[in-house]
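Dear Dr. L.,

I hope this message finds you well. Following up on our conversation about the binding site, I have prepared a predicted three-dimensional model of the protein together with magnesium ion. For your records, I am including the exact sequence and ligand specification that went into the calculation, followed by the structure tokens. Please feel free to forward this to your student if that is useful.
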Amino acid sequence: MNIHEYQAKQILDDFGVPTPHAEVASTAAEAKEIAARIGRRVVVKAQVHAGGRGKVGGVKLVNTPEEAEQVAASLLGSRLVTNQTGANGVPVEKVMIAEALDIKDELYISIVIDGDIGAPVLMASTEGGMEIEEVAEYSPEKIFRVAGDPLIGLTTYHARDIALALEVPAGALRATTKLITDLYRVFIENDCSLVEINPLVITQDDQIIALDAKINLEDDALFRHPELAKLRDSNQLDPLEQRADKADLAYVKLEGGRVGCMVNGAGLAMATMDIANAAGAPPANFLDIGGSADQGQIEEAFKIIMADDDVEMILVNLFAGIARSDVVAEGIVAAAKETNATLPIVVAMRGTNAEKGIKILAGSGLNITGAPDLAGATVAIKQKLQEMGGSN
Ligand code: ADP
Ligand code: MG
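The resulting structure of the complex is given below.
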């Protein structure tokens, strides 16, 4: 789960990681008040679940409370499009007003789980402020990596090594070592999947401060942190992803697709998308209904696919074990009837009650083609696309 910068900053504050003085506002008047209270130059920062705000006017330096009010007024209620959002952008419902710091140097530090070694890995670079993907591509030697030990944690000498690699001034070395140690505790104690500070800055008076903060929380561990679970902001998801989130379905919209996919199991879903792509039918979404979806979830999954304007036809690929084919089939028929669906539907079904499922679909009076396997399904899709013609 993704959270906002102001929420991440609160967590950092709680763990003793230095951040700029800042408050969050939902109205322009509040923004003005906060800027006046801070009483010096401030930055107004759009609070959205995406980085890259600086480049598109989502982070603005202002000199007066009146200016802060104006910038807040133009940001609040708008949608911010950055290189990390889709073309529709994400809604700005809050802005953070932070004291402007006099920056000497912008650095980078992050912690993620490295699946290969099964441990948290710290990545640090003197090249902060720009995207780490770019640093990784053009100057990979500038990224310093250290793994934390799952049992021992991060040792002080490791933290110090990282501080040295960041080439901080001698006077800031102790504070940086402490900041890195505290950041590691933030990661572990909150069950994060990502903590990223970009930039971590050295100020003109050699203070080390986390200027930006991005934290992702591990969904599967959220039950251990009820107070963190409350930080969820579904409004940042696109409307269809929001619906899927509520129905507990794994759904991701894909740009440029034509075929809506409904599959059970993430691995099967990915394989299905690859094969659809290879057949010249780019998938419009990833959708995993899971192993034990009930009829309500299946109906909702189908409606979500149907609600996507890019979808010209639907491919269902089901390997039925726990989720029975006849239940899925009835879900599809019910949802198709309710939405007056006329799109062609291609279904590959195997496993528990597959024959029963295909019979239900065939007897539904809908535009459904059954296929014995995925290869057969792709042939059917190609045929349908050809019949529809012209829309390439
Ligand atoms: P994003 O990563 O979404 O672009 P950041 O918070 O990293 O947003 O801000 C972008 C840039 O704006 C930073 O690299 C920094 O140069 C500047 N900036 C952000 N906050 C402040 C601040 N409090 N004081 C001075 N400069 C800031
Ligand atoms: Mg940033």
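In brief: The domain at 238-387 is CATH 3.40.50.261 (Rossmann fold).

With kind regards,
A. P.
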